[in-house]
Amino acid sequence: MFTLVLGIILVVYGIVFIVAFLTLPENSTRTTLEEVWPDSVILMVLMLGWVLKRVRVNDPYRLASLVLGIFMMPVSLRLIITGLQQVLP
Hints:
The protein is an all-alpha fold.
């Protein structure tokens, strides 16, 4: 049951990250990110954005939110499938 709930939560976070990618303007800075999104989303995007900034990627915060959204979807779907297998024998 826990894995099912965790999978559903990760689906919501994946959607939030993809929406963040779509709504952030080009070449967005840390201040525009902090004005719009909740703290938990900001923390994950800032950590990955910092790494991408060190690699010298253009527009690191938008790319970070897209990568996190794409990463969350298969992980969450796998957790949902595992949770359903546990709940429905």
